[in-house]
Q: What sequence folds into this?
């Protein structure tokens, strides 16, 4: 009996290790203040008593509830609020304020007025006032774009954490990850208690698309997105262009297929994890997607921007 119990205990422990609550890489919290701003997840910050992050925390609490229900999880994670000066110590890519999710349970968000938001605001100064009305309605007279980069995109990063929790570093395609991130962003925003965050992200993305101020873009194909991912990421504007395309696809997918589609998409990312099945060729991947999701989904995901 004792041996039996011992085996059971060992089995239990080894199972638990796979889905451990403590998947968070705590070495990333060194030098930060543990600010305890939420009872649903962990919060760390470069300041001791930051203001202006209550809304972000509140939205993330609601998003966690929605994702936990949708993905049948109770995920613990940590949110790191990092100011511009300390950004490169905690994030893996500049510019300060561009939200990102690490593979092991941490999300890094900007604090205060971030470099990325202020840069985008500067860009808007060249736009005639008559075209800024709709943005001012949603972002205030001074066009505070941290409401987009921090508050709205935090939901996207949280979606990645629910993915990484199951896939680790295994990425079959960066573009599929990003469609998933956008899908999570749209779905979580639609399920918040008010539509403010959704309206802001929608108005801003549509403004970027319609005003077409991208200038010359070096990368446009999905192959380039895969092969030069970190180069595209560094060129924030080009990365933003790809993200607007993924956003439009995600919005259509969510409006047609709803909450359960998030779960099916995550399961697909888990099933095609290259750590398990190796790299899948484009043709085979497309067939797999048709078999899993059907033609309509694959049609929505068709990439028509190669040239
Ligand atoms: Zn993403």
A:
């Amino acid at each position: 009996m004792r041996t039996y119990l011992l085996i059971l205990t060992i089995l239990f422990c080894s199972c638990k290790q796979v889905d451990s609550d403590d998947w968070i890489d705590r070495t990333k919290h060194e030098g930060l203040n543990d600010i305890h701003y939420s009872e649903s997840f962990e919060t760390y910050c470069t300041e001791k008593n930051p203001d202006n992050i209550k809304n972000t925390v509140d939205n993330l609490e609601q998003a966690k509830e929605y994702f936990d229900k949708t993905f049948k999880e109770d995920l613990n994670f940590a949110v790191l609020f990092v100011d511009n000066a300390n950004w490169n110590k905690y994030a893996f890519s500049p510019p300060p304020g561009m939200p990102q999710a690490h593979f092991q349970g941490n999300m890094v968000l900007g604090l205060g007025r971030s470099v990325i938001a202020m840069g985008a605001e500067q860009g808007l100064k060249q736009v005639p006032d008559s075209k800024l009305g709709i943005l001012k309605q949603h972002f205030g007279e001074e066009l505070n774009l941290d409401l987009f980069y921090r508050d709205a995109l935090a939901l996207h990063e949280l979606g990645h954490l629910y993915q990484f929790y199951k896939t680790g570093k295994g990425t079959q395609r960066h573009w599929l990850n990003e469609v998933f991130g956008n899908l999570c962003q749209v779905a979580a925003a639609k399920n918040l208690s008010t539509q403010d965050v959704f309206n802001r992200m929608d108005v801003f993305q549509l403004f970027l698309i319609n005003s077409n101020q991208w200038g010359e873009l070096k990368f446009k194909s999905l192959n380039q997105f895969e092969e030069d991912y970190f180069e595209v990421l560094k060129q924030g504007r080009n990365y933003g262009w790809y993200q607007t395309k993924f956003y439009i696809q995600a919005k259509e997918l969510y409006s047609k297929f709803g909450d359960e589609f998030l779960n099916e998409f995550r399961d697909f990312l888990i099933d095609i994890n290259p750590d398990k099945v190796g790299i899948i060729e484009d043709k085979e991947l497309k067939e797999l997607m048709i078999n899993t999701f059907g033609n309509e989904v694959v049609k929505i995901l068709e990439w028509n921007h190669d040239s």
User: Anything to note?
Assistant: Residues 8-19 have pLDDT under 50 and may be disordered. The two ends are 69 Å apart (CA to CA). The longest strand covers residues 78-82.
